[in-house]
Amino acid sequence: MDMESRRESARALFQSMVLIRAFEERAAAAQAEGKAPGTCTSVGQEASAAGVVKALSSNDLILTNHRSAGHLLARGADPGRMMAEVLGKATGYCKGKSGTLHISVKELGVILTSTIVGGELSLATGVGLSVSMQGSDAVVACFFGDGAACEGIFHESLNLASLWNLPVLYVCENNQWQAFVHRKETMLADHISPRAASYGMDGVTVDGNDVEAVNEAARVAIAKIRETRKPFLLETYTYRTRGHYEPDDQTYVDPEELASWKARDPIASYKKKLLAAGTVSEADLAAIQREVETTIDGAFLFASESPYPAAEELLTDVYA
Amino acid sequence: MIHPVPVPGHEGTYVDGLRLALFEEMERDPNVIVLGEDVGVYGGAFRVTEGLLTRFGPSRVLDTPLAEEAIVGAAVGAAIRGLRPVAEMQFMDFISRGFDILTNFAARNRYRTGIGVPIVVRGPSGGGVHGGPFHSQNPEMYFVHTPGLKVVAPATAADARGLLKAAIRDDDPVIFFEHKFLYRRAKEVLPEGDGLVPIGKAAVRREGTDVTVLTYGSGVWIALSAAERLAKEGIDIEVVDLRTLRPLDEETILASVRRTSKCICLHEDTRTGGLGAELSALLAEKAFEFLDGPVLRVTAPDTSVPFAPSLEEAFLPNANTLIRAVRKLTAY
Lengths: 320, 332
What we know:
The complex is a heterodimer.
Chain A: H1 3-32, H2 46-53, E1 61-65, H3 69-75, H4 79-86, E2 110-114, H5 119-133, E3 140-145, H6 152-163, E4 168-174, E5 177-178, E6 181-182, E7 202-207, H7 211-228, E8 232-237, H8 255-262, H9 266-277, H10 282-305
Parallel strand pairs in A: 1-2, 1-3, 3-4, 4-8, 7-8
Antiparallel strand pairs in A: 5-6
Helix pairs in contact in A: 1-2, 1-3, 1-9, 1-10, 2-3, 2-7, 4-10, 5-6
Chain B: E1 11-13, H1 14-28, E2 32-36, H2 52-56, E3 61-63, H3 68-80, E4 84-88, H4 99-106, H5 109-113, E5 120-125, H6 140-144, E6 150-152, H7 157-169, E7 174-179, E8 187-189, E9 203-206, E10 211-215, H8 218-232, E11 237-241, E12 244-246, H9 250-260, E13 263-270, H10 275-286, E14 296-300, H11 309-315, H12 319-330
Parallel strand pairs in B: 2-3, 2-4, 4-5, 5-7, 6-7, 10-11, 10-13, 13-14
Antiparallel strand pairs in B: 1-8, 6-12, 9-11
Helix pairs in contact in B: 1-7, 3-4, 8-12
């Protein structure tokens, strides 16, 4: 990669992470001010979303979970329409009928956002099957957490995907928390990726707070899937620095552990790295941050001013 | 040896009707796929999918592990992308393992995203074959209660074919309850041509003037057999085969009850929260002034399906229990 494309790639990854952070923090702040309902964020995990999604091609497909804002925004979803859905407005991606944790965007290939933990794993095999049958070279990225990896469907799905040679990139965002319970209280192993071997599948763990490492690992995995048409399990080892849900005072969190992960914040770390390497200038990064702030201001204004769905909407798309 | 594919215009059983529908729809539409336990090499535990693998190959006829949630989930994921999967539950008792996917994903998708989920989940339900508590159930009401699911339960060979074809062509999820007791007992000439039977339309199987019996599945045959005996006593019952349980054909139901003024709901499913309860409420709301007696229910009792033949016989509604209810209602 020459210097210019390295700079472009770095800017895109940085911009994506900053946008995700700004969007989620605005949604959380709006909740605190009584201007928005509660929501789930992925603050602290931005490198995982940006790193993987930016490694996908435009015809690839995505299934995700209740911490989906990162995957949607990295994919190019409109922050205004997303915020409108968070507020339950008619201009939202699902006309306000789905809400904050369940945004699907067909035109971007984001097929499902599932808040029933593990639902994305269940449907991803079918999406992979459709891709295989249609003779497409697309890859299906399925994002889930360490919590979903405790559900029975994790086993059923990975077994089936392996058996049927489905082109699915399973991305386990191991964020150390399952709602209000620490991962260490729910499983004895620290990592999910070694489980891949039992399905005859490749599995890799990557530092989920290092966006370039995630991006590179995802590119390798995706290339392998395109070549072999077999599934791959990529674990991004990261940390959810906000609570399970907004509001959440996080009294159940060990402050030392939280502080140690905040010190490894993916955005701050990446900024430091880029400046040290001289890839981009401080002014350049500041400009990106200002642009993102303007975008999010506009998105929130658009969502706030949008109407709620009309009463007639209650009975549309009803057939039985 | 694979049995020959059934032919329209010739006599066929309920299983033949189902099998013919699958062959016809898979020929017609390359997006139709079949998946489930033993559906391929073995041809299905009840031989419903026999011969499909040979004709359509392993990319469209997929044997799966014992993993009902994964089967239903894969079907839903594929359907969102434009395929038309038909997923078999080896016994409908096992559909409980796919309940989450059906009620939370298949049923909700069009309402909340505008994208339909054209799946069919089909399989054998019902008793009468001494299958015991986990191979004889009638779990239709979990799904009838769920907005966003269509629920179908054919009683005849022609309807098994025609409704399955309609279910496969439907743009939304259909749960298709076959009755295993009828698999090889119900037979008739399968109609020439397409034989499509629309979802949402009931059929009046026998016209009568004294009492309407609203029923489906095995109940249709019980009601028809009771009707013959009651006719000898001068009691003339009308038998309405609901065929689709959700959405209900209110027009046919109300027209019949307005004519006879008396109604019995008959089903093999257990009593509390069974379809009879919903039908009674419907009649109370929309036909109250036409009724000349209470709406009665003839159903299985609120128990598990027992294994012992003597107990299963006592569990299942039959012509005698229906006849007693009809006499009671006509004397009211």
